[in-house]
């Protein structure tokens, strides 16, 4: 009789433990759902961007710059027809190397999202500071590894990076997989495009969490400026960094506007700014909403070549501008205007009453401009 009672008690205890375990597991799953989602100020209607702005994914909080870079990586993997695993490996690497922030410093000459070293053949500083280039060369080296697709992601990441700390990558596989889950579209192992075929940009762009957040929204007023050509007698800035950024931006005139693109064949408005300043060896964040805090505040009345100029755009507001251009000097601003127009030059005076922010990135700051109709209008605008 005692043995029978003991058996019943053990069975009841096992049932209770099973119920509690299931309840705990369900509770944790529900908690994960509750903690995931847009953070205050985030989401497409907030700080927006390619990645959907600031949000919690897999229980980890990411800001708008981090989600923008994660979406860019997934987009490039999708463009190349590589499997989901490649995106997990790339993002776990970037979480370790830079916490998904495009940094301009690192161990020795390491730079950018992946902390790639120009001295080790990864590319020029200007190239590795562009997340698009940095991701593509990382993937080139990844898929050149025999058996990479069946390696544990941490092992594959270490084989590419050759880090002095090889055990850092594997612990980031889970948060990387959660980020990939947020942005991945299509099958886990898509059929690669035929050699020489154009990438399926439309499919890849569905990796972006927010739709295209609009163009300049400033009418193209009649002007004696050809929007796709430098005016005769244009003089670039003398400061090396400003000259490099301005020269790069102007070299893109006439190229198409592509939402999320950072070059070399197309750009959106913030992608052009990032690529231009990367060409000068100066990293800036991805996304308009992040770039409006880059560098230091400047005044429209003291604007310098290379400064970023922000306006609400077609879908933004004075407090949350969605469009950015670069002042190149000579009273002109270059910008990826919209999807039907591409990269063009406009007189800064066309933007005068719309400017919400000006940010000075590098080089000498501007000096007060002589009084005139343009500076009079700009004087009413804050930094």
UniProtKB/TrEMBL annotation:
Record key words, sorted: Hydrolase, Protease, Signal, Thiol protease
Transferase found in the keyword field: no
Residues in NlpC/P60 domain copies: 239-362
Leader sequence segment: 1-21
SUPFAM superfamilies, A to Z: Cysteine proteinases (SSF54001)
InterPro entries in UniProt: NLP_P60_dom, Papain-like_cys_pep_sf, PG_Endopeptidase_C40
One Pfam family this sequence matches: NLPC_P60
Annotated transmembrane regions: none
Keyword Cell division on entry: no
Family listed: Belongs to the peptidase C40 family.
The name this protein goes by in its record: C40 family peptidase
């Amino acid at each position: 009789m005692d043995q029978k009672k003991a058996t019943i008690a053990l069975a009841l205890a096992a049932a209770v433990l099973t119920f509690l375990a299931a309840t705990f597991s369900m509770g944790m799953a529900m908690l994960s759902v509750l903690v995931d989602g847009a953070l205050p100020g985030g989401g497409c209607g907030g700080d927006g961007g390619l990645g959907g702005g600031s949000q919690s994914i897999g229980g980890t909080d990411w800001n708008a710059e981090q989600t923008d870079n994660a979406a860019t990586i997934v987009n490039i993997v999708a463009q190349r027809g590589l499997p989901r695993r490649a995106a997990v490996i790339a993002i776990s690497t970037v979480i370790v190397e830079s916490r998904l922030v495009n940094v301009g410093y690192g161990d020795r000459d390491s730079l950018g999202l992946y902390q790639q070293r120009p001295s080790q053949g990864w590319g020029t500083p200007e190239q590795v500071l562009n997340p698009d280039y940095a991701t593509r060369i990382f993937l080139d080296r990844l898929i050149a590894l025999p058996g990479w697709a069946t390696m544990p992601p941490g092992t594959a990441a270490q084989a590419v990076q050759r880090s002095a700390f090889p055990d850092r990558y594997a612990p980031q596989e889970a948060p990387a997989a959660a980020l990939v889950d947020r942005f991945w579209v299509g099958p886990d192992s898509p059929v690669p495009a035929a050699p020489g075929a154009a990438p399926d940009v439309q499919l890849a762009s569905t990796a972006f969490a927010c739709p295209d957040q609009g163009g300049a929204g400033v009418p193209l007023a009649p002007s004696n400026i050809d929007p796709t050509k430098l005016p005769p007698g244009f003089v670039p800035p003398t400061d090396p960094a400003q000259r490099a950024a301005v020269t790069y931006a102007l070299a893109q005139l006439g190229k198409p506007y592509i939402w999320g693109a950072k070059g070399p064949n197309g750009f959106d408005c913030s992608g052009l700014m990032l690529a231009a300043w990367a060409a000068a060896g100066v990293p800036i964040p991805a996304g308009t909403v992040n770039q409006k805090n880059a560098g230091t505040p400047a005044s429209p009345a003291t604007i310098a070549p290379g400064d970023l100029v922000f306006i609400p755009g077609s879908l933004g507001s004075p407090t949350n501008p969605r469009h950015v251009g670069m002042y190149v000097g000579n009273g002109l601003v270059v910008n990826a205007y919209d999807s039907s127009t591409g990269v063009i030059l406009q007189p800064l005076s066309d933007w005068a009453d719309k400017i919400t922010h000006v940010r000075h990135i590098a080089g000498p700051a501007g000096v007060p401009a002589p009084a005139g109709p343009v500076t009079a209008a700009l004087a009413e605008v804050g930094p």
